[in-house]
Amino acid sequence: MSSIIIYLIRHGKTIANERKLYCGKTDLPLSDIGIREIEKLKSEINYPSCERYFTSGAKRANETFNILYENEKYIELKGFFEYDFGDFEMKSYEELKENKNYIKWIMDEEGNVSCPNGESKNTYKKRIKEEFKAFINTVRKENLKEVLVVSHGGTIGTILEEFYDNSKNFYSWQPRCGEGYKIIVEILEDNFKINKVIELKKKS
Known about the structure:
Helices cover 37% and strands 18% of the residues.
């Protein structure tokens, strides 16, 4: 039996975060506030040194990584990109609340309703689950023991809801921008299991 340590870090703020807009596939950079916050967090949190680093490939994830690990290289894993909100991208609740398709989507408890020209909740979960399983297999085959991924709130929340504790929904698992978790993954014969999730703490 062996284990892998994976750090899951959420990217810094964008103008969409600040304005409370749906932003998934839209490839926004960090905002000026987001940059300043990540620079500040860099001195407040002990971000770990790892054997290998990954991002979702989004500008906001790559820029966050480059601030935190300016001299390190990373590999992009596009499957970890945020939810595709389709026609709801870069719009707010106030803009959408009278939209029948939007109401149908937010009221959908089964997860089968797609955003127009975007993903359904179940499609998104399936994508993240498949990418995470493939990621674990890659890490395992390359005998890596400690890795880090900079991605998105939805991605991190989905991984922890689906593979660790579904008594909390993925919104509850989402860390604040620039923050994240250390997770301990136990490697089994033909599978894996997340045994422990530790929130990254600011220095005391």
